[in-house]
Amino acid sequence: QVQLVESGGGLVQAGGSLRLSCAASGSIFSINAMGWYRQAPGKQRERELVAHISSGGETNYADSVKGRFTISRDNAKNTVYLQMNSLKPEDTSVYYCNAVHSDFTRSWGQGTQVTVSS
Questions:
Q1: What SS3 class is residue 14?
Q2: 3-class DSSP state for residue 69?
Q3: pLDDT for 31-42, tens place per residue?
Q4: DSSP state, 42?
Q5: Which strands make up the sheet holding 69-74, listed edge to edge?
Q6: What confidence score (pLDDT) does residue 108 get?
Q7: Which residues pair with 101 in a beta bridge?
Q8: Is the pLDDT of residue 89 over 70?
Q9: Backbone phi, then psi, for 30, in 5-degree steps?
Q10: Closest CA to 61 of 101, 91, 25, 41
Q11: Running DSSP on this structure, what letter comes out for residue 13?
């Protein structure tokens, strides 16, 4: 099993920055890709992909965050980061770390709240 622990969320004004971290432990050898998803408050919504990074370092982003967010991973620390700049109120969500394993199963973190005030 893999455990994912997120940190770095909080309250920030529009235009500000935050960096999220996700530390993986346990059976990390099984992890291929990692990513960040978010789920907006209020209605029961699906989690939407924010950013994704493969084991080879290839990245992809949701159109809504391109140019503002950067995903990276430090394999030595078993940690993936999400640098979020130029934050907007619509970025307010619970952000979840996700790991995709070699058998295509997924692990999730507990989530961290990001709130952007206008």
A1: coil
A2: strand
A3: 899 999 999 877
A4: S
A5: 2-7, 18-26, 79-84, 69-74
A6: 95
A7: 31
A8: yes
A9: -85, -5
A10: 91
A11: E
